[in-house]
User: Fold this.
Amino acid sequence: MTSIYDFSLKDLEDYLLEKGFKPFHAKQIFRWLYDKRVSDFDQMSDISKKMIAVFKEELTIDPLVLKEMQESKDGTRKYLFELQDGCLIESVMMIFDYGYSACVSSQVGCNMGCSFCASGLLKKQRDLSPGEIVLQALAIQKDLDNYGKRLGNIVVMGTGEPFDNYDNVMKALSIINDPYGLEIGSRHISISTCGVVPGIRRFAKEDLQYNLAISLHAPNDELRNQLMPINRAYPLDVLMEALREYAFVSNRRLTFEYLLLKGVNDSKNEVRQIKELLNGLNAYINLIPYNKVSEKDFETSSDENALRFYDLLKKAGVAVTLRQKKGEDIDAACGQLRANHLK
Ligand code: SAH
Assistant:
């Protein structure tokens, strides 16, 4: 059965029309789902019994089932959810000075095979539906409701490659962004890709104001091939050309994510290569401490080295930020909680 959370506002209007109802009820129903956040059709008190009966017959309204929750000392919360078919996914809530942010998954497992990442320990089982992505954000908002707080930011940076599930991710974000949906502003929504070039090219044509982040992690093909198999399909020159085109048509600033891997990608050499790679592009690079994954040999750069790397980039004239560590004391690495749970 279709979940009502799979419907964009337009989809719901079309559906209502098809069933012989007035499409304007879609906005009312969206209010029940995303503003009042009910989880039962019967609670939609201003919707006709007839319409409710059709919904009950044809649609589901089930929330995600929370299997486990971990909370870090810094307030970060990691949730393990079970889907209708028993698959498990992870989402994270982080607290920043600019507000509450949800990191959502886009797939069950991941096929990108990045050598440092815990998500790829379990191959992709399937794509998430739009509703399953929306429901992660909604579940986190409902958790925040207990504290009277509002979810203000969404990053599609959990398990999975969003541009390997393009349509569902875009539909989910349109619901999250909709003024009648979760009403999270475009500029507070970010998509992170490992470098799926056809997705980047498609995204460039969308005229959406979401932020685009690229997981770079290595500034040369030799190292990037080792760390990220996607680089063999779309090497850096191909990737950078697509990004330059995106930056040109969107006029948006790009974010590059760069994991700090001790002794792997944190030397002076890489500083020079990063500078060359980003030259002339409206972009900044976000240095990210690596969360240890027990199954992998990688370590994060020492704080000292991270700062040195940051300073060198800054001196080289590269726009750079150093990400604050979050949820260090819990299974915060993408896919780690799920992998540990399934063990
Ligand atoms: N597939 C997409 C989005 C999911 S990964 C992408 O690759 O961008 C989100 C980010 O988390 C990526 O930058 C990824 O490289 C990073 N990441 C993966 N494992 C990590 C770990 N153990 N510690 C910190 N960041 C990690």
